[in-house]
Write a structure and sequence with these properties.
alpha+beta; 16 helices
């Protein structure tokens, strides 16, 4: 097969060309600079031609190719005629693939579906690490899950891996700016290059990565019906990560995106640091969900060494061209055409190892409760089954004590003001150490931080105070009495502990709570709030329902996520816990 590679002498285009030449394809390198094209063509034994993608495109058809691969970028900056290349391919009966990592560009290629179907050719956008390879990994490891809660992907390149200008420009165009992420079954506004997380590679190295928007975050909610979809990336050197963090901070302060010269400067700095660090990098795709009623995390990861990391974005193209004749016509994001087994086979001649691991992923309360978990009603389990971030909305009645100690405690902890029908939103965030609970009573917010403790117990921190609470379950009602306490890690005597008369239960199909906190030393009521909440985001028709013992995911590839608050009672399995 004869393949035209635009940007054939670039970081990723040259890897695409190398792999395709190894497989016996006839390759034509296209680009604007003769010297690097000529040098690489001589080394690979292939053709080259001068091509400016914004100018005359006839050099493509004059070479007699059957498919065009665009490996240039940055795809977010292609301008008004961003689909000029695939349109040209459709008009001239050529198939098309690209290595795009821009969410809007990848999604938008579907507008050319009719043109490619009429030409009996295909166009696959995002035939790269994301979303091509990451989607294949999700399909494989989540194939027997009853429900998908969280999909999370991370790319962690080694510093000695060459970085093209387009990759750096794509990252800097986002950092510090607002991005919309699908979290807890609704779209949530976040910041690019936020929420850092550490990853450990097989060589023992720890890598640091932060949130970015990629095609996965835009397209996977529809494709896989997940409640949350996240992507992180980071560099090996802390000083480079720190530099990007400074750029993100400047954008947050000024509201101005980095100018193009900053991307060029960053590219020069990255090139100057090329000899630092290692040539080892990795990629990880993890899926948290339910299998046979158990909460699990399945993880697929690869580790590239000996400088072969930059070949990974080229693997999808290589694997797909090995079965070119089986790819159906039409234009679409590269989400369902690649099988993970084909991708793994396409890495066999590279210094790349890959593996899949499985582990249990119980939530904080499920792990603490143990056998008591099954004694809880469905709606109570639902509230304690959060794997990323979710919100629950409802109404509450708030009563406050009038004693001096009650007033001081209410002021100190920002407890809600009294009211009979107060709007309430509870936002729960799962962290590596436990959970963060944010309670918003009509604009008055107070938070607590929860983490594991002894069996049938958990610990909750309010500023400098830590309290250990037991979790007895009687007749489907879970109480939360305080058993121990600490002030700045100093144990409190029992007579200084507050009293908690708190209970969670189900009534009329709703999750209900009645929380009463009383001051020590007979200080009386501090605050009491009671009411009900329900999940803020309804599962979409394409999303797997929450079920006690698991429920079939079904085929939801073409469904779209919706978001918004709901006051529907938790009466069906769509609201149930795991």
């Amino acid at each position: 097969m004869k393949v035209f590679v635009i940007g054939g002498a670039g970081v990723f285009g040259s890897r695409v060309a190398t792999l395709l030449c190894r497989d016996g394809h006839q390759v034509v390198l296209g680009g604007r600079r003769r010297a690097p094209l000529q040098e690489l063509a001589h080394r690979l034994g292939c053709e080259f031609t001068i091509l400016d993608r914004s100018d005359d495109l006839t050099p493509i058809t004059s070479t007699g190719v059957e498919i065009v691969v665009d490996a240039v970028g940055p795809f977010h900056a292609y301008g008004e005629e961003q689909y000029r290349i695939p349109q040209y391919c459709a008009e001239h009966g050529l198939s098309y693939m690209d290595l795009a990592d821009d969410a809007d560009f990848v999604a938008g290629v579907a507008r050319l579906d009719g043109a490619f179907r009429r030409a009996d050719r295909f166009a696959l956008s995002g035939a790269s690490s994301v979303p091509g390879l990451s989607a294949a990994a999700v399909r494989d490891i989540a194939s027997n899950m009853d429900r998908i809660d969280v999909i999370e992907t991370a790319i962690l390149p080694g510093n000695r891996a060459p970085r093209g200008y387009s990759v750096i420009a794509s990252i800097l165009s986002q950092v510090g700016g607002p991005i919309d992420l699908w979290r807890g079954n609704r779209w949530v506004r976040s910041r690019a290059w936020s929420e850092p997380r550490n990853y450990r590679l097989p060589n023992g190295q720890r890598r640091h990565a932060r949130l970015l928007r990629v095609p996965d975050t835009a397209l996977f909610p529809d494709r896989f019906g997940a409640r949350s979809v996240l992507f992180r990336a980071g560099m090996e050197l802390g000083v480079l990560n720190g530099g990007v963090t400074v750029v993100a901070l400047l954008r947050r302060l000024t509201g101005v995106a980095p100018p193009p010269w900053m991307s060029r400067a960053a590219h020069l700095i990255a090139s100057a640091s090329h000899q630092m660090g290692t040539d080892e990098g990795g990629m990880e795709v993890s899926v948290v969900g339910t299998r046979d009623g158990d909460m699990v995390r399945d993880r697929w990861s690869l580790f590239a060494s000996k400088g072969d990391g930059p070949f990974i974005p080229a693997i999808t193209v290589r694997a797909l061209l090995r079965r070119y004749e089986t790819i159906p016509p039409g234009a679409r994001p590269c989400l369902g055409d690649l099988m993970l087994s084909d991708a793994v086979a396409a890495m066999s001649d590279l210094s790349v190892t890959q593996r899949t691991t499985h582990e249990m992923q119980p939530t904080l309360f499920r792990e603490a409760l143990g056998e008591r978990w099954r004694d809880l009603p469905i709606c109570v389990r639902r509230l304690h089954s959060v794997q990323d971030i979710e919100s629950f909305t409802g109404r509450a009645e708030v009563i406050r004590g009038n004693s001096l100690i009650a007033r001081f405690a209410a002021f100190f902890f920002r407890f809600p003001k009294p009211g009979r029908d107060v709007a309430l939103t509870i936002t729960k965030t799962r962290t590596s150490r436990g959970e963060i609970w944010e309670r918003n009573f009509d604009g008055r917010i107070f938070r607590s931080y929860l983490k594991p403790s002894r069996r049938h117990h958990y610990r909750e921190r309010f500023w400098v105070f830590d309290y250990e609470q037991e979790l007895p379950v009687v007749d489907g009602r879970m109480s939360l009495p305080v058993r121990r306490g600490w002030l700045i890690r100093v144990p409190l005597p029992r007579f200084l502990l507050p009293r908690s008369d708190s209970v969670e239960y189900e009534e009329d199909g709703l999750f209900r709570f009645d929380v009463g906190l009383y001051a020590p030393l007979g200080g009386g009521l501090i605050v009491r709030y009671r009411g009900s909440v329900a999940p803020s985001g309804d599962p979409t028709p394409g999303q797997a329902a929450f079920a006690v013992e698991g429920v079939d995911v079904g085929d939801h590839a073409d469904q779209g996520p919706t978001a918004g608050p709901t006051s529907a009672p938790c009466r069906t399995r769509n609201c149930s816990g795991d």
